[in-house]
Amino acid sequence: MKGALLVAGTTSDAGKSVVTAGICRWLARQGVRVAPFKAQNMSLNSFVTADGAEIGRAQAMQAQAAGLEPVADMNPILLKPGSDRRSQVVLMGRPVADVDALEYGAFRDRLRRAALESLDRLRAAYDVVICEGAGSPAEINLRAGDIANMGLARAADLPVVVVGDIDRGGVFAAFYGTVALLDEADQAHIAGFVVNKFRGAVELLRPGLDTIEQLTGRAVYGVLPWLDGLWLDVEDSLALDSRQVQAREPYGRQTLRVAVVRLPRISNFTDLDALACEPGVVVRFVTSPAELDDADLVVLPGSRATVDDLAWLRERGLADALAARKGPLLGICGGFQMLSHEIADEVESKAGVVPGLGLLPAAVAFRPDKTLARPEGSWRGHEVKAYEIHHGVVTVSGGEPFLDGCREGDVFGTTWHGALENDAFRRAFLREVAVLAGRDFTADPGTCFADLREERLDALGDLVERHLDTGALLRLIEKGTGPVPTLPPAGRLGA
């Protein structure tokens, strides 16, 4: 078979990423050579490919679902917000500019060409490409410059399935409104809908499903049930609201409590997924000093705005709480930079030299060139494979070596993302944390994070196979949308 499909959503965090991954896994199990694609991604969770390109972490996960090594063509454009108004533009895995919304327009034609060229290369190399949209296709204020949703569908002649999160409520209005807000040419690409995150008996939904099909003339391809524990390299910090505790039960062991500081520009918080999968480990995201009191381990995660987020720590009283704290503290990438004595930044914040928290013997200098690498190393005899994404270069002047960084007493720092996914290293680190925290905790030697990720991808494939009309999806991928009725544009509703 040959073809492509665009998975859009009624909102951000509707489930586009996981549905795309599920379809990729389902097709790969059928022997189809399938690849994921997202033309433009706005996310602070990213990954480094084998050849040193930076792409969205969700596309790396989708590549794994398809049984592939991720490449830059799967996410040719990545926008990394550094503030409410400015984002770094990463094109084909490399940063090319830092722009605001108005300046972005100057890049639009170049980015559009790059996205379409990447999609063409993937379609030539694979049987099927499953594309993921961005946000909602009905963001009419952005439609003129859109290259990720209906702009892509029109340019590449893609059929579109719209995913809606019924757990939020209003899914039928969102389906109808999404189609109605589009012009006729865009509407022609909308083939139908998928209901996501449903709790209960599907029979209760049947009247609504029938009505939305009658009103829109488009099919509902299925209803995906709510399934706990599918934290799969999400790209949106909105998802943090639903992941305040660990995915697995403690099984009666002494609990190890981890508090992750939820920075305003938190990045690569997927680093904590491996901890959350450990039986007996509870992971919480926190924003106040009081929430640190009962933590056995505090984590300062990555940040797209190190100096600004450090100022936020001081404004919230968290900096003082961390300095006064007795117990294990881990800084990862931007968090490691904050723990240093000094940060010299004329690149990201342009703030010049600012004092760090002074908890580790290190100094940071930001450089224009971004470090993108897949380093390997070890700690206490345990091999570690990781990845690096940073402008800030840390120079260590003392302490005990810890991966590429250092340790001073109870405080650890590294620039390496993904280190905790290495099972033997993670267990050794947690043993050290438990000793320092005075906890009776033993990490489960049977926990393999790579296997758990594969199980979750298989679970997504199972959801697609069991709950979606896969025959109809195959026809849609191969033959396209076909004739569909036009809904009256929003301006003429009720006229």
Please count the beta strands (DSSP E, at least 2 residues each): 27
Radius of gyration, in Å, reads 23 Å
Examine the coordinates and then state which fold CATH places here, giving the name of the CATH topology of the largest domain.
Answer: Rossmann fold
How many strands, which pairing sense, and closed or not: the largest β-sheet? 7 strands, mixed
Helix content: 25-40%
Give the C-level CATH assignment of the largest domain.
Alpha Beta
Mean pLDDT: 93
How do the strands line up in the largest sheet? 15-13-16-18-27-26-25
Measured distance between first and last alpha carbons: 44 Å
Pfam families: CbiA, GATase_3
Family: Belongs to the CobB/CobQ family. CobQ subfamily.
InterPro entries: Class_I_gatase-like, CobQ/CobB/MinD/ParA_Nub-bd_dom, CobQ_GATase1, CobQ_N, CobQ_synth, GATase_3, P-loop_NTPase
Organism: Nonomuraea soli
Task: Output the keywords.
495 residues; alpha/beta; Rossmann fold; 2 domains; seven-stranded mixed sheet; six-stranded parallel sheet; 15 helices; 30% helix; globular; cobalamin biosynthesis; Cobyric acid synthase; ABC-type vitamin B12 transporter activity; ligase activity
